[in-house]
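Before relying on records like the one below, remember that each one covers exactly one chain. Contacts with other chains, cofactors or solvent are not represented anywhere in the record.
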Amino acid sequence: MVTRPCLCGIDVGTQGVRVALVALDGRELGHGARRLPASRREAGIHEQSPDDWWEGLVGALREATASDVEAEVVAVALDATSGTVVLEAPDGAPRGPALMYDDARAVVPAERAERVGRELWTELGYRMQPTWGLPKAMWLMENAAPGTGDRIVHQSDHLVRRLTGRRVATDTSHALKTGADLRTASWPSAVLAELGLPVSRLPELVSPGTVIGRVDGDVARLTGLPAGVPVRAGMTDGCAAQIAAGSMRAGSWSSALGTTLVVKGSTAELVRDPHGAVYCHRHPDGGWLPGGASSTGAGVFRELLQPTADLDDLTRRASSRPLVGGVSYPLAGRGERFPFVAPQAHGFLTEQAVDDVDRFATTCLGIAYVERLAYDVLATLGADVSGPVALTGGATRNDWWNQLRTDVLGRRTTRPASPEAATGMAILAAAEPGHLAETADGMVAVVERLEPDIERGRDLDAGYRRLLEALADRGWLAPDLADAVLAPPAVTM
């Protein structure tokens, strides 16, 4: 039998686990997926069981490895949610539920972490937030009574340990929100010690793409992966989607629109945001990956529309109507983190929707406006956002919405063939250190290119300005930022 070498990319999200087996030319040879049981959510708390992650991962791997008997996995990489942490025993067993990426209970630890480490965080260009990994790690130290040898690890670290059967290092991408100094790829031991979090409680740090272990023999029999296959350190789910979009060259960007909206790009220099909404991952090849994750996104439709709503029919009917009426800030729940930070923010619609079609169209436009604001904010911080934007995520299945977003952005967009985060991890697994952008160039295929309708974009500009004014009036968008975004472009002679 002739075997074909392939890479195994694993994406562990909030709702499920996805696995992609990808050939060196970018073709998908196999896939697997498992849904995860419902999370525990209440009053700022969001927990999941690490054992549920593992069961989902095993099932998705078995499905993927059985889908093409001629595919031979030669390397593995895994991404997970950013800021999710769990207390792990010396033998790798979880000590309790994981504190998920949006768990916001660590308000007081976040305030202390921001105060103690402010000089470092300012140099790195962000502010510490309650949902980030460091405040939650501090909360675990204070409330979970860690025993001798217990460590606080990220979601990805815990799962890679179970894949390899040994303690593993963590990557600088997942460690960003836990306070790692990405300039030196090291833990700021003095700051962490003052916060009551000894470095000994955390994994070692390595760059994404570093081989950190090999698939354990027992795990191989359980999952269908070959024993001894190298496992490379991964990146967060947002970075994984960016890799899958092929947006790894300086000046390129991606917008992943699913339940939430994640904007990521590549720059040569570190982008610093005094308002704390934008933060930068370190590019494995050198340079930086600025961006942020908004709480807006397609997940809001679960609250706005009936469960039986036919989105295809709503799209067809919306496409035949003019986009007029109220301005929507479509936010599910409370609190925004990007493109501005406003814990008190909530969704609003300036005028009552006529029907579900109007509500759907206004919401789609509102999300497009938030996406444009994200790029406008990045531009005010000095980032080059003139290049094309790769559109990824579940929302890209809607062609009408893709064109609407392109028109609002006023720039060319592309749609990659396989935009899933699991594909991004397969590309990372294929890349030798320092060659991630080059590897992505060779493995990412573009299936569609969209040009903006400039005239339509001008017609929609008034609604964008009304939304920004409404956000500023509510005190959520800082006045200096609103003025910078709303200022007319400078005229050059």
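The domain at 4-234 is CATH 3.30.420.40 (Nucleotidyltransferase; domain 5).
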